[in-house]
Write a structure and sequence with these properties.
This protein is α/β, with parallel strands linked by helices. It is 36% helix and 17% strand. Helix 5 links the parallel strand 3 and strand 4. The longest helix has 17 residues. The termini are close together. The mean pLDDT is 97. The chain binds S-adenosylmethionine. S-adenosylmethionine binds next to helix 4, strand 3 and helix 6. The site of S-adenosylmethionine has 22 residues, from helix 4, strand 3 and helix 6.
Length: 247
């Protein structure tokens, strides 16, 4: 089953990439739009329910705002809330985020299990970044929120890390932009490297499902094929979008 959730104002809801913490709308509006998106995911069978702790989400947001060095990000407050909520609801034991730049996208996922927003205990949460300097900064950022090491950054090619990962992958978050000839098309390589270790109920989340849809054509064809994924929802609550697919 493939489906699209589109908020009424997805085209006009815009952020300044250099001011990631600026409030873009009243909190009730943000919560309402994300709730609609979660409901669409529940109806498609991607999520079992839509409940998450709003107070813990805000504690997570506050920690990221205060502790993270973020040169820029395209993760809107709605997307941050959505990523946190999906992880809080599914509670994956292992999660890998590929192409995490300064780590903000990674912690938006991992923050459901570590730091002040934690609502469950995870085993291994990996953020993978191919540029060593970015990986270093991301690791510094993550250590400030999670001293335990459950969440950590690996400086490597995500295709290799996902291929070599031992054990089930409960959630895979894709945000890497490959070499110019490939761009976001690398998502399919990363997914296929770990597909055989994604158990039933596991999810893959692909950022930029809207603004990079052209480059993601093959990827989207793969996750929309019912032989590969049970359901897939394009969640369009901002101009970037997130395709969420469940095995
Ligand atoms: C555009 S950034 C993602 C930023 C994110 N959307 C945000 O708004 O914060 C993509 C990152 O993927 C990294 N990357 C590219 N290819 C990769 C690969 N094969 N493995 C891991 N990281 C990769 C790049 O170095 C870059 O930091």
């Amino acid at each position: 089953m493939t489906k699209t959730y589109r908020s009424r104002d997805c085209d006009t809801y815009r952020m300044d990439y250099h001011a990631p913490h600026r409030e873009l709308e009243p909190p009730d509006r943000e919560i309402g739009v994300v709730q609609e998106a979660l409901e669409a995911l529940r109806e498609a069978g991607v999520l079992p329910h839509t409940e998450y702790d709003h107070g813990k989400m805000l504690a997570h947001r506050k920690a990221a705002r205060e502790l993270f060095e973020i040169p820029w990000t395209a993760i809107t407050p709605r997307m941050q809330r959505l990523l946190y909520a999906v992880n809080a609801i599914l509670q994956p034991e292992n999660m890998i985020a590929a192409g995490i730049f300064c780590g903000f996208t990674f912690i938006s996922n991992a923050g459901a299990a570590v730091g002040p927003g934690a609502c469950y205990q995870a085993k291994e949460l990996l953020g993978v970044e191919i540029k060593p300097q970015e990986a270093e900064r991301a690791e510094r950022n993550v250590r400030r929120i999670d001293p335990t090491g459950v969440a950590r950054i690996v400086a490597a090619d995500a295709v290799d890390v996902v291929r070599d990962f031992q054990g089930p992958i409960g959630a895979l978050y894709l945000d890497a932009d490959g070499p110019p000839e490939k761009g976001k098309g690398i998502y399919l390589d990363i997914l296929q490297a770990g597909y055989d270790r994604m158990p039933p109920g596991s999810v893959v989340m692909a950022h930029n499902s809207v603004n990079c849809a052209g480059r993601l054509k093959q990827y989207l064809g793969f996750v929309h094929d019912p032989a590969n994924f049970r359901a897939s929802v394009n969640v369009i609550l901002d101009p970037e979008g997130l395709e969420v697919s469940v095995r």
